[in-house]
Design a protein that fits this description.
The chain has 482 residues and is an alpha/beta fold. It contains 16 helices and 21 strands.
Length: 482
Amino acid sequence: MTQFSTRNISMMMDLYEMTMANGYFAHHETQPRVIFDIFYRKNPDEGGFAIFAGLEQMIEYVENMHFTEEDIAYFESLNLFSGEFLAYLKDFHFSGDIYAFPEGTVMYPNEPCVTVVAPLIDAQLVETPLLALVNHQSLIATKTSRIVRAADGRAVSDFGARRAHNMDAAVYGARAAYIAGAVGTATVLAGQKFNIPVSGTMAHSWVMFYQDEYTAFKKYAEVYPDATVLLVDTYDVIHSGIPAAIRVAKEVLEPMGKRLKGIRIDSGDLAYLSKKVRKMLDEAGLEDCKIVVSNSLDEYTITSILRQGGQIDAFGVGERLITAKSDPVFGAVYKIAAVEYEGRYVPRIKVSEAVEKITNPGFKRVYRIYGEEGYAVADLIAGFDEVVDMSKPYRYVDPEKPWKNRFFENCTVKELQQLVVKDGKRVQPKRDLEEIRAYVKQQLDKEIWQEEQRFENPHKHYLDMSPDYYEMKMSLLHDLRG
């Protein structure tokens, strides 16, 4: 098999998914329905929140999940599985339901962004791919959101393909970055696949191929007079790169009635160089020429450059975006929350010596609570069948301070999870990437406190519980202790 071969990504799973499924099958436990939650425990980069991404690929995965004759033959070669189980796999299709936050939702630790309600084997087999999809794209979306906020209204583009962990990571990372506010990508396949704006001009090799910078810039401008952006740091930004760019603007573009669109700096002290370059361009009458910078940027370097007065119009961000370098693991997990028994879902809870690893049990709903100003003041977990009525003061429990008697007053509420897959089939229309992107921006502009968006010591968003849900969780813990 080569990388150009057709892949059945249904096989992208951990082996223990199959060994457990085979064991359940052997004990005739294929029909009981179970509930699994996907959630994460810690915000990347010690930030205030994360951005949920990857849902569209999750739906696509479960709708198309199947095993080919070649897959069955491979499983047979492992000598682990019964013939009856392998025969069962030949006709297997995911038949469960999936509830999820809308893609692009701002989310917080320990609340289920995805809930799978499905027959036991179905729910078990989808664990690895669903986690891989949400972990990767949510990580990149979250990192990109931080970088975009640091740029403070200046354009941010994804330049990271060559530093991505593989080709799929480059393509789907570009998708996640666009959702979170990047204006485009340099990755052509992502542009083709997702209709993301693409951008790119030249590399240092173009400049070095010709005998001097002026010749290299002149030849480029002649081919792309309407989109000339010149890379000016191959040799010396101030003494050769910018003078050659100005000369091309005057001698090549202006006689054609065109303007130099921009210059790019890819090395050196970007704050210092951008200020010098801005002055040189303005003195040459090129006030409209944009300054683009790249080279190992992230939210911290961008913040520092701008605080130093850097004169920059756009940032091209590479490896620290596409790999989320400073915190390269998102850490979402897939935990069983309930098992169907005699027509009802019986809660299950995982207990650990580490308090943060104790799970939230049962079939539940997640609500976002909004204050009178329209900003989200907390999220709330309640039982699936509970009614959350904010028309009057609503008592809730802060699980970190359960002894306090607290109420939401004059608040509104929005349920976050929606049914997106029913009996293995999509039940909501596919959302346009522009719609998801606008949804992220709308939340950050109008619903999420600026104090939660700080990079350093952000305000904590609270995850509260309804009194009935909290008591149910505590009773499970007490029963286990007994």
